[in-house]
Write a structure and sequence with these properties.
mainly alpha
Length: about 240
């Protein structure tokens, strides 16, 4: 597993599936960014809690749906309508939320004890979303299997995550800077929506590429043949 190779595969997935990826992320980003904008313009405990909750749930729903989008193409299955990917992920949302809470607590504890354990936790637990969505693992099992898959490659996986997040962060700052002349509400809503729709898929696709690279190292993440024309459709459900 090479860092450059996984990043390249993540970018290839993005290029191949950019229409579906942007729509999947964008529909949720509209709601999450609106909550952020309301929290920024009318900062109360209630608006901040709503923003935090929607950010967590929306982020997990998007990540899970994007994993499912890649999974269909990886397994040479015809694409589904965008709502179908949300529906698939919704059934795993409780497990995803539980894993996200446990992940956050574990990483924070790691950083409190020493910085290094926190960094190790970020790398070792990086695959919990694909494992929960693709392999239907429970959140405890997902943590264990993720650690097993990453063990021996912890340093490279950590660098991969840091690089992907730096690239994504730079792109988000660049996109949101285009809206700084607008009032705060519109800056947060429009800037957050567009940044989320464009950047979140890349970061999710990198982790999905990493999952397949570690679980099926001999098989390409995406089929080598050209994708079927049905993948041009975002809203229609296509079956062979």
């Amino acid at each position: 597993m090479s860092i450059g190779g996984v990043l390249s595969e993540g970018l290839l997935i993005y290029r191949r599936l950019w229409r579906r990826s942007i729509v999947v992320a964008g529909l949720i980003s509209i709601v999450v960014a609106l909550a952020d904008a309301l929290a920024a313009s009318a900062a109360t405990r209630a608006t901040q809690l709503v923003s935090l909750g929607l950010g967590l749930i929306g982020g997990l729903l998007v990540q899970g749906a994007l994993v499912e989008v890649v999974r269909d193409l990886h397994e040479s299955r015809p694409p589904q309508a965008v709502p179908v990917y949300y529906e698939r992920t919704r059934g795993r949302l409780g497990t995803l939320i539980g894993s996200a809470v446990a992940y956050g607590i574990g990483v924070v504890i790691g950083f409190i004890l020493l910085i290094v354990p926190g960094l190790i936790a970020i790398a070792r637990w990086s695959l919990i979303v694909p494992l929960i969505v693709i392999e239907k693992q429970g959140w405890r099992e997902a943590f264990t299997r993720s650690s097993q898959l990453v063990r021996g490659r912890t340093g490279r996986v950590l660098v991969l995550i840091v690089v992907a997040n730096i690239l994504g962060g730079i792109a988000q700052v660049g996109i949101r800077s285009l809206f700084t002349s607008l009032p705060d509400f519109w800056e947060f809503w429009l800037g957050g929506t567009i940044a989320g729709a464009l950047i979140v898929p890349f970061e999710a696709h990198v982790l999905t590429a990493l999952y397949y690279r570690l679980t099926e190292p001999e098989r390409p993440v995406l089929p080598e043949t050209a994708p079927p024309k049905a993948w041009e459709s975002v809203w229609d459900e296509n079956r062979e």
